[in-house]
Every structure is written in structure tokens, then in C-alpha cells.
Amino acid sequence: MSIFIAIAAFITLLAVACLLYPLLRPAPPDGVSSQRLNTAIYRDQLEALERDLATGKIGPDEHEAARDELQLRLLDDTDDSAAPLAQQPAGFWTAKHTAWVIAMIMPAGAAAMYVWLGNPAAMSPPPVAPSAAQVIQMVDTLAERLKANPDNPQGWAMLARSYKVMGRLDEAEAAFVKAGSFVNKDPDLLVDYAELLAVRAGNSFEGKPLALVKQALALAPQHPTGLMVSGVAAFQINDFAGAAAQWEKLLALLQPGSPDAQQIQANIDEARAKMGQLPPVDPAAVGAVTPEKINEMVERLAQRLKSNPDDLEGWARLARAYRVQGRIADADMADARAKGGPDLSKQLKP
Fold first, then answer.
1. pTM higher than 0.70 for the full model?
2. Is residue 222 part of a domain?
3. What single-letter DSSP state applies at residue 346?
4. pLDDT (tens digit, 9 = 90+) per residue, 76-95?
5. Phi, psi of 87 (to 5 degrees)
6. How far, CA to CA in Å, does 229 sit from each of 163, 212, 247, 249?
């Protein structure tokens, strides 16, 4: 973008300079005046008299009389009151004023014309997502660098998340272990690690995954994914009060009336119904929060995005859910849509 602006500015300034040069260059000497013209004529006549005197065509007396007459006529014709023939009276709208107007209007007009007829958004094109081969190459390069320099917990954490996205769960867990205590400082990493362990345990958050989620919420009490996962974990062990409490915190962070808020509200209602605070919910409609139930929730989100493909936040949420389920290809498609890529909703599995 900066290169384009620099080139456009240079071309505009060059065009302005070409227009201003004729207007601002020094004016040529004054044009021929009547004084100069008469003086030249009388000078030629005096020279002719001198030649006639030298050749004897006229005598000294005739020469003197003729010279006096020419000098008197010259004095009359070269009077200072005579105005130059080529000089014109100066007005307000001078060449300098014209130059100033051009210098101000032309750059502004060029910019306005580009905004009107051009495409300013093209100066900042959307980033192009790397291909799968490029991603694999970058991850492999990072892994080789970490083998040569293993004392890099931040690099191991980055590698762990990359392996998790790629579905290489065993390698992802090993990388998380090598990241060590660095993971404990970042709630995002803690939740990612918990999701990884839960997937490997059959989508169960009991044990260490739940402990990691609680640790993440201790660092960031309003972490959206942490609240969602914490509610699911509580529901799985029949702690319906705990599930409702966590989802209510999450609901307060969502836009009222949004599809996500409606889904979380339905989860809260289901948890309260399990506690006896609301009329029982039809089991055929909701069921228990099991791996199958989680799959249904993910598929409902996918169907909703087919009707509203411009919900980029929804696509990002769907991509995360697919990764938790190990559906890496679907996660990649949802990720591409979340980054403003083409609508891939028709390619999602029903």
C-alpha cells in the first residue's frame, strides 16, 4: 500500500511540476518599445549622414543641418511618456495565482477521482491463507528448530497447538509436556491442552482436563471457551448447578439475542430442568450432554451458519469445535471462512 501511494504521489507531483514550470519561470525581457524602435531608426540615419559626408555627397554645412534635425526629431520621438508596445497592464489573475490554484486543486482532485472511480480497498487485500503443504512445511521447520534448541517453551507450546490443529494428537500432547510450566501462564494454552486431553479420553473432561480448565479460569475468569467447557464438564458428571452457573457467566458475555446466546440459554434451561427448577425438558429434544449430544450441538451450529454464512465469529467457533472432535478437514474449511475466505458452508458434512 505504501509503495502504491508513493508512486501515485510522485506521478501527481511530476504532472503538477510540468504545468507550473511555464507559469513560474522568469519572464523574458520586455518586448520592442517605440523608444527603442525610433532610436534604432535614427541611429541608422545618422550613420548614413556620416557616410555621405565622408564620400563627399554632402558638405559640412548640409551635414550639420541634417544632423541637428535628426537629433531634434529623436528627442521628440523618444519621450519617456511613450508606453512600451508589448507591455500589457497587470491584473489580479496573474500567472503566479494560476500556479497556486493548480498546485492545490490537482492533487486533491486526483485523490478524489481515485476514491470515486478506483478501488481503495484493493490497497489492503485480505491476507491469503497458506496452503496445507505450506503449513506442514512451517510446522516441520519449527519442529526441527526445537530439536536443535529444545530450551524454548514458547516454541514447544506453538508446536503443540499446531499439531493439535493438524490432528497429530500424540505429538501435540508430547509438545505440551515439553512446554512445561509455560502453559500454566496462558489460559488459552491451558484450555487447548484440556481439549486435547478430553478428545483423547473420548470427549470426557473428567480428571486432568477439568483441572486445566479450572486453572485457566483462575487466570481469566471470563474466558469464553473455558466457561463453556467447564459447564460441559460439570454437566457430564451430573453437576447441573455448576453447569448452569458457568453457562450463565458465559451468557453475560454474549450479545443478547444472538444465536450463540440462544444456544447457551437453551443449555442453561436444560441444566435447570435437570435440577428441578423448570418443567422437565423433552428428552427426545435435548438428551444428555454426551459425546453424541455435543455432536448434535456442533451440527446445529453448522446448519445455522449455512443460513448465515457471514457470521465470521460463528465460523471460528465451529472450527474450534471440529478440532476438538478431530474433524480436521472440516475445521480447515471453517477456519478459511472465518478468515474471510469463500463460502464453504455447502462443503460441510450434514
1. no
2. no
3. G
4. 665 555 444 444 455 556 77
5. -80, 135
6. 21, 11, 9, 12
